[in-house]
Amino acid sequence: MEFILDHLLTIIIFFPLLGIPAVLFTPKHRLDLMRIFATVATGVPLLLGIVLWRHFDPAQSEMQFVDHTVWIRTFNIEYFVGIDGISVAMVLLTVLISFIALIASYGIDKKVRGYLSMFLLLETGMLGVFCAMDFFLFYVFWEVMLLPMYFLIGVWGGPRKEYAAIKFFLYTLAGSVLMLLAMIALYYNSNPTTLVDGTSSSHTFNFLKLAVENDFSSAGPILGVAFPKIIFVALFIGFAIKIPMFPFHTWLPDAHVEAPTPISVILAGVLLKMGTYGILRVNYMILPEATQWAALGMAIFGTINIVYGALVCMAQRDYKKLIAYS
Hints:
single chain; two-stranded antiparallel ribbon; 13 helices; 70% helix
């Protein structure tokens, strides 16, 4: 039991992957067995998520259930997962919505093996994003979500599924490129630090060290604009596409309408929360001064989102589109 608690987050994140080989090696005519394996692969993280919640101490300000080790020593990339008050709620939401969406997927009868495999890979990607405390690890999990969602929409979606899937892919890819550039810029402008095993390194991807041990306001300007402001805008656009915030929202109605209903549930219930989570976890924590600078602009875009989205909702005749715009 102590081992499970020490590595609880890692088990929750990667347990859905255990269901993929079980599903893939099940005879193709045994759809019921495939669904049972996938249900177990999503049900166990739900049960462990309840254990996580019961053992989580809201009075602590530090990260909890930390699993921390060196991953790629050359670039000081760490396998660093942990949760705080924000991420514990998102982990619980993810395991619950994933389990419900998997049960709702019992009606899928086309290429069930591929569908369930993509679904389980998607769940691992979503959980990893909410637990990762190393920027490189965060980015890997962020990209892991892209591929299964593309196929889940493009293969099992509605009449315009290819158009919706490609649009989703291109928008998300554009945001990912901006995030990658910002991540690299933060890494190379970070102060010398120490790895978890005590060895020294010149730079870091560690969220906590980027936030506490670095002041990026001293970095040189880019094209005459302060470095933190440039990085903030790049990250903000990358996350705003995932929210999606006006004017980066046009991929969502198509994806929402064309996706299979269980995937629409995942999209609305979990994926769209990741953009806001990214802004809170990365922008606010690492670039507090740039956040204050951008506060008015974020408020304006947020207000436009609320009013514009509500007005467009009033004109919808498709229930899925109404949910998408809401």
